[in-house]
Design goal:
Number of helices: 7
Radius of gyration: 14 Å
Helix content: over 70%
Distance between the termini: 39 Å
Structural class: mainly alpha
Shape: globular
């Protein structure tokens, strides 16, 4: 359900659904959190990302490769290249996806600075 809300651009409703499930004591899985982080990236709101990141840690998924890459992507899209880079470098195991996110974030920031 969360993935569908994100797919159809209902980002705020997705975050509301996450909040509702949390209140009902349901813990999300890595797929749900990945979708939520994708929504945060699309919102480009660092404030929202800073609220979701501790929740990801609480659920125990911070160093999951998929979730870690999604967290890095969220920081990059929220124009916090430094936090995204710091997070990728802190991951005990990273993959090509995480490093590609960093590379794309750096290129995006350089492009914005040129324009």
């Amino acid at each position: 359900m969360v993935a569908s809300l994100i797919q159809f651009e209902f980002k705020e409703q997705c975050l509301g659904l996450l909040s509702d499930t949390h209140e009902l004591k349901f813990l999300p899985d890595e797929f749900t959190l990945g979708s939520v982080l994708k929504g945060c990236a699309r919102l480009r709101s660092l404030h929202v990302g800073h609220q979701v990141h501790p929740y990801v840690m609480k659920c125990g998924f911070e160093f999951n490769l998929v979730i870690g890459s999604s967290l890095a992507h969220m920081y990059m899209k929220s124009e916090s290249l430094e936090e995204g880079e710091k997070f990728i470098k802190s991951m005990p195991i990273s993959n090509i996806v995480a490093w590609e996110k960093l590379k794309m974030g750096i290129l995006r920031e350089c492009w914005i600075n040129i324009i």
